[in-house]
Write a structure and sequence with these properties.
The complex is a heterodimer of chains A (93) and B (329). Helix content of chain A is 23%, strand content 24%. With 93 residues, chain A is an alpha+beta fold. Chain B is globular. Classes of the chains: A alpha+beta (93), B mainly alpha (329).
């Protein structure tokens, strides 16, 4: 297994949603990763499309960057619809 | 259960004051039910405990294929054979989800598998019992997977994110296993002849006590439980889960029209729980030590499968390289 590549697996369910990360598989190459992912993650028609990406190709945010990256969004409440108060007679908007 | 007696290396749970600042922040995160993710800081003992527990759980899924594999070629009909193969394939899948979760902790899959083959890592005691008749396929689905569900449902809320997420997938598939097992037994009891009914009872007689042992020793004799509970790796005590399993299983046993080999089993009207007899823990410890009926056979089979599959893995790598070269040319 050591000389196989670790691939992250993304599956799109049949309801037209985005591909979603479901887990990972080891494989000799991408084609085999797709085959393994099919057997492992879609045995009960969980998906209609699979992406595999070598784990090393993913760049992720670090947990200590969390505040710097995401806190800034917390004080911009005006970006949410619920921030705007409208009189009842306007009805649903 | 699928993980039994997991060593935490802890000599008692420490209070928040005696922890380092980092450790305190970690424990408070756990107390607040916030999941720990692979890149978060965690105490070394937490990491090691999880690696031990998740690898043991994964090994159990993989070794658990063997007792059932024994009956694939002898299943009584094509339908039963297909169902059994689907279940066994699921077990392989569960093992793989769990090995992946374990790898997020920095553990190496090959090394951990090696430890199991050398007898340094455990798998569940239950898989060291033989499957002697067809009813055992029913009993394993109903009782063994049933016990696994009782253990794994709370593990969906375990504190380590990747382990919890693997458990969610596993639990979704597990109920098919239990229902197909119970249906096998129900069919034998209701449509079968005397010999087939006797087979069901014989199977339950052999598996009942070993299944109860799956939950691990009594709380009093479970030195690692307190730390695992404090870390919320474990969410309920061994005794609590065992009782829950018995309470939900006995009514199903009565519908089958079978009994369990426990003269002390009786319903307590006041508590609403089934009381049961003394478990022979010496048997459990012997099986864990490697002296169960099938320990040697199971490990030998796993080793053989790994060794004899080596050429396939090598060929896959060679083929991948050749394809890549052809593409480049």
């Amino acid at each position: 297994m050591a000389d196989w590549t670790l691939f992250e697996v993304f599956v799109r369910s049949k309801h037209g949603l985005n591909h979603k990360h479901v887990g990972s598989v080891h494989a000799a190459d991408a084609e085999m990763a797709i085959e393994n992912a099919r057997d492992l993650y879609t045995r009960r028609s969980e998906g209609v499309s699979i992406w595999v990406v070598p784990s090393t190709a993913i760049t992720a945010t670090a947990s200590d960057e969390k505040d710097a990256l995401f806190d800034a969004a917390d004080d911009k409440v005006y970006r949410h619809a619920s921030f705007y108060e409208l009189p009842d007679e306007v009805g649903h908007m | 259960m699928y993980a039994q007696m997991v060593e935490t290396g802890s000599k008692g749970v420490r209070d928040l004051e005696s922890m380092s600042e980092q450790e305190r922040a970690f424990q408070q995160r756990i107390d607040a039910d916030i999941k720990i993710e692979p890149k978060n800081w965690m105490p070394e003992a937490y990491r090691k405990t999880l690696i031990r527990q998740i690898s043991q759980h994964a090994h159990s899924e993989i070794v658990g294929m063997l007792p059932e594999g024994n009956w694939v070629t002898r299943a009584p009909s094509l339908k039963r054979k297909l169902q059994l193969m689907a279940k066994i394939q699921d077990e392989a899948g569960h093992g793989l989800y769990l090995y992946s979760a374990m790898e997020t902790l920095g553990a190496d899959r090959d090394e951990e598998v090696q430890k199991m083959h050398e007898g340094k890592a455990k798998y569940s005691s239950i898989f060291n019992y033989p499957t002697l008749n067809w009813a055992d396929m029913g009993t394993i689905g109903w009782l063994v997977d049933g016990a696994a569900i009782v253990n794994q449902v709370p593990l969906q809320r375990t504190s380590y994110g990747p382990y919890a997420r693997a458990m969610i997938r596993v639990c979704k598939e597990e109920s098919f296993h239990q229902r197909q097992g119970y249906e096998i037994l129900l069919h034998m009891m209701r449509e079968g002849n005397d010999a087939q009914r006797a087979m069901v009872q014989d199977s339950i007689n052999r598996f009942w006590w070993p299944v109860l042992m799956m939950f691990g020793p009594s709380d009093a004799n479970s030195p690692n439980s307190a730390q695992s509970m404090a870390w919320k790796i474990k969410r309920h005590s061994n005794d609590e889960l065992r009782q829950r399993f018995i309470d939900q299983t006995i009514p199903q046993l009565q519908i089958l029209g079978c009994t369990v080999p426990d003269p002390d089993l009786k319903y307590n009207e006041e508590t609403g729980h089934w009381e049961f007899g003394e478990i022979d823990w010496s048997e459990f410890y012997e099986v864990l030590k490697g002296n169960g009926p099938c320990n040697k056979e199971r490990v030998a089979k796993r080793k053989k499968a790994l060794d004899e599959g080596a050429w396939v893995r090598e060929a896959a790598v060679a083929y991948a390289k050749k394809k890549q070269q052809r593409k480049a040319a």
